[in-house]
Specification:
Blueprint lengths: L4 E11 L9 H20 L3 E6 L6 E3 L5 E3 L10 E8 L3 H8 L9 E9 L5
Antiparallel strand pairs: 1-5, 1-6, 2-5, 3-4
Amino acid sequence: MKNTPTNQYMFLVQGGACTDGGLSAEQMQAKMTEVYAWIDGLTKKGVMSAAQPLTPERKIVSGKNGSIVSDGIAAESKEAIGGFFIVNVTTMEEAVNIARTCPMFNYGGQLEVRQIAELQRD
């Protein structure tokens, strides 16, 4: 079965973007103001279709019939996914160029950019 790509890309937020990183309340507010302005700008352009933070609680379900439940990566981990954005563009290059404008990089965050594929029910 071949995954058919869509014109949507997901940015998975990792690292400093999803933790306070020891910032003061004022610094945290300034950081969030920058991020919200970035989201609002992309939304007004019709590019951003979703943006949500994730809570730090996580469970990994695996094994036959979902019989194994574990806590997953520690919340302090740089690899922890703290949220996501979905943008509507036609190429990976466009998605990466948009991701590069994210203010989260100023705070040690990183974005993993992935193209979303259509769910195939063949």
